[in-house]
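== Polypeptide entry ==
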Amino acid sequence: MNPIQSLPSSPEDDSGSMTTAPQSAGQSQISADSGNLMSMEPAFGDSRHWQDVFWLGIFLLHLILVGLALGVLGINRFRKKDRLNIDQYTNRFIGNQADLTEDYWPLYAIAAAVGTVLGWAWLLLLGSRANQMMKISVHILTTYLAVLSVFCFWDKLVFWGVAFAIGSGLQFLYIISVIDRLPFTMLVLQRAVMMVWKLPDVMRIACVFMVVMCLWLALWSFGAAGVVASSIGDGGRWWLLVVFSVSLFWTGAVLCNTVHVIVSGMVFLVLIHGGPEAASMPRDPLIQSLRYAVTTSFGSICYGSLFTAAIRTLRWEIRGFRSKIGNNECLLCCVDFLFHLVETLVRFFNKYAYVQIAIYGKSFNHSARDAWELFQSTGVEALIGYDCSGAVLLMGTLLGGLITGTCAVILTRIKHSDRVIMMGSTSVLMGMILVGLAMVVVESAVTSIYICYAEDPLLIHRWDPEFFNQMSETLHERLQHRSSRGTQVLNRNRPVDHIQETTSV
């Protein structure tokens, strides 16, 4: 057995208690048989079976029911109060003076326009100013949350002031905990941007899905405006908005992850064939990826979109907090329990499953499990644990959502000051989804790069030798770090073992 594999993982290890590979994993795999490159291609071109059909049905049924509910609630207050006589069923919940749908629908339209502009601006500046935009997202978000907290306290919105203050503090602590990882993270993001910028079809597909999202938002905001304008009390309206917001989140996640699968398929083909202009590239690769994403693999996308985002966010926060605990054994024990619980969930719900879905057409859980086992067996999981590219892109998405929500709050405050929080919170979600559709293009490239590096490093070496060397060097350092942590744990336990032996004698 390799000595590194036999060492226990330290609680302070930022890459978790996962099985590691030899320190020379990145360098040794470069000598793999080049035939492995072509062995992956037929799986992409073969006919596929429909996967996770149950969740596809659930998602489509949910869209139909929610769409009907949104239409009814919006029409009920459109140009005439209680057009469909719904108030007779909600008399006991009446607690506000009713308004009209058109009082709030234009405000949602402006919020959607702001989110769309921010998303398109990200795509347009992706090639020339991507690095600066990512740095702005990381450093400005903390300040923006703090400023929002001050304004909320000034407006006597104590709850939201405390919430934004806590968010700003957590964001600052997270940045401090991962500050040493940001250079490598920016390197990975730069290479991912360079990859997708050379694929104009990828940029077009992101714009198309943003238009599709805007069409659904037109209906969603129509119904949400009807809810905000209704005579139902604040509690009832908030419950309805929460239900519709969960639906919007799932729908937006499905569209984002559909783009993820399409882009992953494109990036995989580019890496395996040596470039987008290679003679061996299949005909119409975008159409092929799109066809699989919206047909046989769409059920898997719907299933994964329901859980993946929440688990990823929780995992990032626990990782950052866990690495800064120190020697507090009691607190470390509690955090370790949560960490291992989340790691178990990550084994079955992770974003790398979408690459496996794009390449092989597997079910979501099968794809997630195979991707995680691949990372563990090759040691690449240590590299992924060190990379914070997903968190950086999430910060940009949050910043876009907050800017969209701020615009909605300012406009709503002019005429409807009592509905500011409802309009602002739902507009934040709209902005995050629209900006996220632009961000997911880069995230897809990042996940595809890691999958290809774990499958066969020769793919990355042929695409960018310098980047391959930097990845391999970082992987070597992370495995050495893990080995030294394991050695510290063994050395810490040896005196105890000696005392126990002496006592028994």
Remarks:
- DSSP finds 21 helices and no strands in the chain.
- Residues 73 and 412 are 20 Å apart (CA to CA).
- The longest helix spans residues 234-273.
- Residues 1-39, 495-505 have pLDDT under 50 and may be disordered.
